[in-house]
Write a structure and sequence with these properties.
heterodimer, A: alpha/beta, Rossmann fold, Ubiquitin-like (UB roll), de novo design (two linked rop proteins), 3 domains, 13 strands, about 15% strand, B: Arc Repressor Mutant, subunit A, Glutaredoxin, 2 domains, five-stranded mixed beta sheet, 7 helices, about 45% helix, binds flavin mononucleotide, binds iron/sulfur cluster, binds FE2/S2 (inorganic) cluster
Chain lengths: ~450, ~160
């Protein structure tokens, strides 16, 4: 293998003999960083996180240090910290590894974050289907409480903060931070409009609140351990630290892999790390950052200039694995969920599969998202049942354009972006669908090469 | 609605941990569903009373979240992931096989009430696709080849349970 992983977050995960209990964690040096942090001033720790440049790993890539700075401290209201463990963006399964296999790493990161921001009460909002994950976290919390790392008078510092595991119940929109907050308040997960409802100002119970992803909060522990400056040296400026990439779909070795930002390219990830495609198959398309990111098509070129004026000219395989490069290539790194599709993939069916997801998950508050997502799903389903029309690609693009930018939360964009890219980049396939005989669309597929996607 | 003393105790311990009672709605509903299997109107009224809410405020939560069921489901609940990474590796085929082998329609119950099958969205285990949840346990790499045997095992273990 030409490129090698650098495992910081996943260092102990999957190591023989490593278990998820507190004894094992402490044998590996666990909770020392928290104990040292409690002797420092909270402001220093916040500063350290700012220096580290950690960007959110949940999807938007917003710098964590800056988010913490936005906390409205003048209000005098209690501050809440929420770990977003809803992990539901299709293609993403990195948080699951961190939660199940090294829960104390997350707890330590969270208690450091809690002390740094002087949080009054912290929560882990975990998706409802992770029954085992919730049990693991509950146990980890009790273990940490028994050792004085959580709860009252943490580590003898005089600072107290409890932690509650709160289970979702199967709705994707609970991953959106303001939807999550509503859900935690015991309501439907209807996202709130920003402004004014920025969580750092008017969050949980209308109090200043931080929402960070599982991976982000695990990084906090390491950034404090190594120092913000050292953390910022991993990766590239503006794209610091390591990232875990979840790879799924048509590769030989799907899985989760951790690299320093820009420490490998998309091509190296697919071919070297994941063993490439099945014999005889050719790469067709890659969704780089969860199903809401825009698809990349094999053979495309991405050209432009960096901020400093130097030009770049990349193939899909050349794209560095970080945050900004995917934006330069016209898409986003999102949650780091790479879905690989080979030449057997029917792109109209893939689009229909994605559309069905967003239609199912729209919370229904905004007309463009509620009606538009259902319409997109209906059109692509019809196309896959033998009734495709030549003009459908344009229709889909048109519907998606009318959703984009016109909704309360980014679920609107998550619905529109995949369609905008798929129906444009693979337009010929959408048009060819109309010429396909009806029997072909409905016939049973033979062999592994042609699974139905809708 | 009859809840076991253990569940009642869990509920009493849980409510005061939250800054507001209303936040305990989902946890209470989970406890009830895990014990009784679904959430009846009576249960909703019970939760509302417990948390000083209007029953409507509980009802609107129950109807929003896909995991919460208003009707009893099969004794064994099978959830097949429908989303792209699983579909690329045969998730739809797996679902078809399970329906056939367990004699259970999609989104319905088998005649003997032993099984219910539904499609669910991405279960955050796409690297080991296709995945299937059986009650609270995740099963990975349930490929179309293995789906038939998987169903047979489900049938024999459900007979042992019954
Ligand atoms: C529709 C939608 C779904 C989301 N789902 C998740 C999720 O499952 N997990 C997550 O961490 N963030 C998710 N996010 C992003 C959150 O809103 C939020 O930005 C994130 O939790 C912030 O944490 P971070 O800054 O550490 O990334 C989602 C956003 C949207 C718009
Ligand atoms: S964009 Fe969609 S999911 Fe977001 S608030 Fe509006 S309807 Fe709900
Ligand atoms: S697509 Fe099935 S687990 Fe993610």
């Amino acid at each position: 293998m030409a490129v090698k992983e650098t495992r910081i977050l996943l260092k102990n995960v999957d190591q023989p003999g490593y278990t998820n209990d507190i004894e094992c964690y402490m044998k590996h040096g666990g909770y020392k960083v928290l104990q040292a942090a409690l002797k420092r001033k909270p402001e220093d720790l916040c500063k350290e996180i700012e220096t580290s440049g950690i960007r959110g790993r949940g999807g938007a890539g917003f710098p964590a240090g800056m988010k913490w700075k936005f906390l409205d401290r003048k209000s005098g209201k209690p501050i809440y910290l929420i770990c977003n463990a809803d992990e539901s963006e299709p293609g993403t399964f990195k948080d699951r590894q961190l939660l199940y296999k090294d829960p104390h790493q997350l707890l330590e990161g969270m208690m450091i974050a809690a002390y740094a921001t002087q949080t009054a009460l912290s929560f882990i909002y975990i998706r409802g289907e992770m029954y085992e994950g919730a049990r693991i976290l509950e146990r980890a919390i009790e273990e940490a409480r028994a050792k004085g790392f959580l709860g009252d008078n943490i580590g003898g510092s005089g600072y107290s903060c409890d932690m509650i595991v709160h289970r979702g119940a199967g709705a994707y929109i609970c991953g959106e931070e303001t939807g999550l907050i509503e859900s935690l308040e015991g309501k439907r997960a209807y996202p709130r409009i920003k402004p004014p409802y920025f969580p750092a100002v008017l969050g949980l119970y209308q109090c200043p609140t931080i929402v960070n992803n599982v991976e982000t909060l695990c990084h906090v522990k390491h950034a404090i351990e190594m120092g913000g400056d050292a953390f910022a040296k991993i990766g590239t400026p503006g794209n610091t630290g390591t990232r875990i990439w979840s790879v799924s779909g048509h590769v030989q070795r799907p899985g989760y892999y951790e690299f320093p930002c820009a420490g490998a390219t998309l091509g190296e990830l697919i071919y070297d790390v994941c063993g490439g495609l099945a014999p005889g198959r050719i790469l067709k398309a890659v969704i780089p950052g969860g199903s809401s990111s825009k698809v990349l098509k094999a053979g495309e070129r991405y050209k432009g200039t960096f901020k400093d004026g130097t030009p770049f000219d990349w193939s899909l395989e050349d794209i560095p694995l970080d945050f900004d490069s995917f934006v330069l290539a016209g898409t986003m790194s999102g949650s780091g969920a790479v879905i690989v599709m080979d030449d057997t993939t029917d792109m109209v069916e893939a689009t229909a599969n994605i559309n069905a997801f967003y239609a199912h998950e729209s919370c229904g508050q905004c007309t463009p998202c509620r009606e538009g997502s259902l319409w997109l799903s209906r059109v692509t389903k019809r196309m896959c049942s033998g009734d495709a029309r030549k003009e459908d690609a344009d229709l889909l693009k048109d519907i998606a354009d009318q959703i984009d930018g016109r909704t309360i939360c980014a679920h609107g964009e998550a619905t529109a972006w995949p369609v905008q890219a798929l129906a444009t980049k693979f337009k010929d396939e959408f048009i060819a669908k109309a010429a396909e005989p009806k029997e072909a669309a409905l016939s049973d597929r033979q062999g592994e090469s042609a699974f139905r996607l809708i | 609605m009859e809840l076991s003393p253990e569940s009642l105790q869990r509920i009493e311990k849980l409510i005061p941990r939250y800054p507001t009672k209303r936040s305990a709605v989902l946890p209470l509903l989970h406890i009830i569903q895990e014990e009784i299997g679904y959430i009846s109107k009576t249960s909703m009224e019970w939760v509302a009373k417990k948390l000083d809410l209007n029953p409507m405020q509980v009802y609107e939560v129950v109807t929003f979240y896909p995991m919460l069921k208003e009707e009893p489901v099969g004794r064994v609940q099978v959830k097949v992931c429908r989303t792209l990474s699983c579909a690329l590796r045969g998730g739809y085929k797996v679902c078809e096989t399970l329906q056939k082998e367990l004699a259970c329609p999609l989104n319905g119950k088998s005649e003997d009430g032993a099984f219910s099958i539904e499609f669910v969205e991405c279960l955050a285990s796409c690297g080991t696709a296709p995945v299937v949840m059986v009650d609270d346990v995740l099963h990975e790499e349930v490929t179309p080849d293995k789906a038939g045997d998987f169903a047979k095992e489900l049938k024999s273990s459900s007979k042992q349970k019954a």
